[in-house]
């Protein structure tokens, strides 16, 4: 019997070593950022069996065979639809700004999506105004309403949006609602899905979470986009989920969430609708490609408000948002202002910000003073010292959980959308960002960012260096896992 146990022990050790070695080799040969690979190897060796299991579940960008196959079949028709945009009068790359031209070049080569002119953009800054405008546009809908959100949380004015959708569906308007299964789990447990479906609204869970699905798909890939398109003529996108902030996440102790949305009419609306159509088809196999934008007749010098739509996520070219952000930072001459709730940059983004400050670009990063993610909070702090030493200004917003995701370059070009400055947004989730070439809109966003700074405490380099030693240790521990956050 003793001999059996000895053989069993040796065999178990050998099999464990073989599994760890095999998974380690797989980590190394996969084309991932070195920091990501090293973080996974550290987890695998510290917690061998748990680390191996975690890597198999979350270590690779696995969307599932069915979705991946469907996405491959969708490329040709969507590429054809997008190629038609280059023939439109609103495709005027020669009118783009210095910053806009390089960003659009990246988007065109990576995604095949051009920047288009003839848009009217309104920056909505207050939750009540956002929801009121949305309800008004829903009430005026004649043909179709498409909504896509990471979180829908019942309560307050969010319920008024649901009721408006019910009313329009009963009147014959086609209403489709696509919600992330994990982010909107509270909504799916409420009365609203059945009420909406009973009225004729088509409600679909995106990336449904279930124990068996972990064997076939990575469960932490999330649909993080926020898109509304009404009649293919009015669209919304930005950082705000479909929530009334007075009723949402009130027990987290971080205050009300602070967000923006952009209301858009014009040529870009069908492009956003095509992104919605892609996500809808991936989940349902139903094709909803919209009509192309209307080609208005006017002189070139009347063409204004160029907007570049930049989607990202599994099935699309890797790192497109990451590359756009790097390009923005490296071509800045005067100033960079970034707002993000979750600041866990890649090594390349961290270096780009440091270099920008060292070449006398005024760099400002605005983050929440209190964060709803403890791990992100500590990991984020681990980047402060190098940034502060380089001259980067870090502001901690005190008016709630600052959830706005925006980048301002040289006061005349901006990015606004759903993308956080963390590895999850940059590499994993389905996201969308607008690069805007419009001075009035940019000035509105600049004023908003300055109001955030005015309501913030700046991190003093000298005070920061005197923080407790235990804080430094915790920061370093969490920084090791930052490539996976």
TrEMBL record:
Residues 219-246, 398-425 form the PLD phosphodiesterase domain. Its EC number is 2.7.8.-. Keywords: Cell membrane, Lipid biosynthesis, Lipid metabolism, Membrane, Phospholipid biosynthesis, Phospholipid metabolism, Repeat, Transferase, Transmembrane, Transmembrane helix. The chain crosses the membrane at residues 6-29, 36-58. The active site is at residues 224, 226, 231, 403, 405, 410. It is found in: Cell membrane. It is a multi-pass membrane protein. It catalyses: 2 a 1,2-diacyl-sn-glycero-3-phospho-(1'-sn-glycerol) = a cardiolipin + glycerol. It comes from the Bacteria. It is an enzyme of class 2 (transferase). Catalyzes the reversible phosphatidyl group transfer from one phosphatidylglycerol molecule to another to form cardiolipin (CL) (diphosphatidylglycerol) and glycerol. Belongs to the phospholipase D family. Cardiolipin synthase subfamily. ClsA sub-subfamily. NCBIfam families: bac_cardiolipin. This is Cardiolipin synthase A. It comes from Shewanella youngdeokensis.
């Amino acid at each position: 019997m003793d001999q059996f146990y000895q053989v069993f022990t040796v065999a178990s050790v050998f099999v464990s070593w073989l599994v760890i070695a095999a998974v380690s080799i797989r980590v190394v040969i996969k084309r991932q950022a070195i920091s990501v690979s090293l973080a996974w190897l550290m987890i695998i060796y510290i917690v061998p069996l748990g680390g191996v299991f975690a890597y198999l579940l979350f270590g690779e960008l696995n969307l599932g065979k069915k979705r991946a196959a469907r996405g491959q079949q969708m490329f040709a028709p969507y590429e054809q639809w997008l190629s038609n945009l280059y023939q439109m009068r609103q495709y005027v790359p020669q009118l783009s700004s210095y910053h806009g031209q390089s960003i659009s070049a990246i988007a065109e080569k990576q995604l095949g999506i051009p920047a288009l002119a003839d848009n009217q953009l309104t920056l909505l800054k207050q939750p009540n105004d956002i929801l009121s405008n949305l309800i008004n546009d829903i009430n005026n809908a004649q043909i179709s309403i498409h909504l896509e959100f990471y979180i829908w949380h019942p309560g307050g004015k969010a319920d008024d949006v649901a009721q408006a959708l019910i009313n329009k569906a009963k009147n014959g308007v086609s209403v489709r609602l696509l919600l992330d299964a994990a982010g909107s789990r509270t909504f799916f447990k409420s009365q609203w899905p059945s009420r909406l479906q009973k009225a004729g609204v088509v409600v679909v869970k995106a990336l449904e979470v279930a124990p068996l699905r972990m064997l076939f798909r990575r469960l932490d890939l999330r649909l993080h986009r926020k898109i509304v398109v009404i009649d293919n003529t009015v669209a919304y996108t930005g950082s705000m989920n479909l929530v009334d902030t007075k009723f949402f996440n009130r027990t987290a102790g971080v205050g009300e969430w602070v967000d923006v949305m952009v209301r858009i009419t014009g040529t870009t609306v069908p492009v956003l609708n095509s992104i919605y159509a892609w996500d809808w088809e991936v989940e349902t196999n139903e094709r909803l490609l919209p009509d192309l934008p209307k080609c208005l007749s006017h002189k070139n010098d009347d063409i204004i408000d160029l907007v570049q739509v930049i989607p990202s996520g599994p099935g699309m070219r890797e790192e497109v948002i990451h590359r756009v952000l790097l390009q923005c930072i490296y071509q800045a001459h005067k100033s960079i202002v970034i707002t993000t709730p979750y600041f866990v940059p890649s090594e390349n983004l961290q270096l780009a910000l440091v270099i920008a400050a060292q070449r006398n670009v005024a760099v400002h990063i605005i983050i929440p003073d209190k964060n709803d993610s403890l791990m992100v909070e500590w990991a984020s702090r681990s980047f402060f010292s190098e940034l502060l030493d380089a001259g980067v200004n870090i502001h901690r917003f005190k008016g709630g959980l600052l959830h706005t995701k925006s980048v301002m370059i040289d006061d005349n070009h901006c990015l606004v959308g759903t993308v956080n400055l963390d590895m999850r947004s940059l590499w994993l989730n389905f996201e969308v960002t607008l690069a805007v070439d419009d001075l009035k809109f940019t000035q509105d966003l600049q004023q908003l960012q300055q109001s955030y700074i005015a309501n913030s405490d700046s991190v003093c380099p000298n005070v920061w260096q005197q923080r407790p030693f235990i804080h430094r240790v915790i920061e370093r521990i969490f920084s090791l896992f930052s490539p996976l956050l």
